[in-house]
Specification:
This protein is an alpha+beta fold. It has helices spanning 3-28, 33-37, 39-63, 68-94, 98-112, 123-138, 172-194; strands at 117-122, 146-153, 158-163, 166-171. The protein is built from seven helices and four strands; from the N terminus they run αααααβαβββα.
Length: 200
């Protein structure tokens, strides 16, 4: 089995898996609002868990070759696979229907808000979601008032909650990056430990 075949198989499996996750998410987007509130978190966890398990299976098959060059290329391919998984999680959240994103973002704001604030969106989401999120937060009993900021941000989705000079980054990019940072050291240690080949 050639190195090129092994590496391409990893990439192909990654692309197929990412496509299946997105299609599955589109179907589940038609469920009730209560179920949908936790969809992004559940789908993200499934993406990471499944990608990690799937990549490990391919890695274990490939490291049986016991060749240093193959080991290096497989590590690179595995990281590319995990990169695709994290990227798919962000894309998945951005593809949620407007009404679902409004509820999700408004819930984040209410969770972290401690005073009156303004909400910063990217340019597209400001026009598409901004007013609805502001209305959803402001009508919630006991919540602090928010307004739509004139400033726009450069991020994939989600919102930045600005209270005076303090900003809470509630963007989808930050949410996924936080989870990745939490897992990075552990995953890295496992990756390099499992790809060690005695005598190479």
């Amino acid at each position: 089995m050639s190195l090129e075949y092994i590496t391409q198989k990893i990439i192909d499996e990654a692309n197929d898996y990412a496509g299946n996750v997105i299609e599955k998410a589109k179907e589940e987007a038609r469920t009730t609002s209560e179920e949908y509130e936790s969809l992004a978190e559940k789908e993200y966890n499934q993406i990471i868990d499944s990608a990690y398990e799937k990549a490990n299976e391919v890695l274990n098959r490939a490291t049986a070759q016991g060749v240093k060059e193959k080991r290096i290329n497989i590590i690179s391919a595995k990281w590319e696979y995990l990169d695709n998984a994290f990227s798919s999680a962000i894309k998945l959240m951005c593809k949620l229907p407007n009404e679902k994103q409004v509820r999700f973002i408004a819930g984040l704001v209410r969770k972290f808000q401690r005073s009156e604030a303004e909400l910063i969106f990217n340019s597209d989401d400001r026009d598409r979601l901004g007013s609805d999120v502001v209305a959803a937060v402001n009508k919630a009993p006991g919540s602090f008032k928010v307004r739509l900021s004139d400033t726009v941000g450069d991020f994939s989705g989600g919102v930045i909650l600005k209270e005076k000079s303090v900003e809470a980054n509630l963007t989808y990019d930050a949410i996924i990056a936080s989870e990745r940072e939490r897992l990075e050291e552990e995953v890295s240690a496992i990756l390099f430990k499992e790809t060690e080949v005695p005598g190479v």
